[in-house]
Known about the structure:
Elements: H1 5-19, H2 28-35, H3 39-51, E1 55-58, E2 64-67, H4 76-83, H5 105-121, H6 125-128, H7 132-138
Antiparallel strand pairs: 1-2
Helix pairs in contact: 1-3, 1-4, 2-3, 4-5
Amino acid sequence: xxxxxxxxxxxxxxxxxxxxxxxxxxxxxxxxxxxxxxxxxxxxxxxxxxxxxxxxxxxxxxxxxxxxxxxxxxxxxxxxxxxxxxxxxxxxxxxxxxxxxxxxxxxxxxxxxxxxxxxxxxxxxxxxxxxxxxxxxxxxxx
Length: 142
């Protein structure tokens, strides 16, 4: 399984945001510079994360975003499910598969996906930033 870029970037944005002082507003430009990402992608992701309450956004001049929840209250599995449009490994209906009525592959892959998501469900954003000092140094967080 490979996560979409949107989900990958969302997790990176959450990590960066969680490393900041709680009251500090982060700009879109700051994130695009740190991770060398497209401004358009970052704007869409921040908007989505804001809509879902992961980030708190402030519009207008001098605006930006900050964490909307504590890192301990952001479950990685829930966040990934929210960002991914689909999390099936194989679509047996596209194109219609000749063996789909007797094939066991779909069930095996569903079990694999469940195990993958179970691992993500066992972690929070706080787990990803336990090495705060190291991450802050790599991301030039003041």
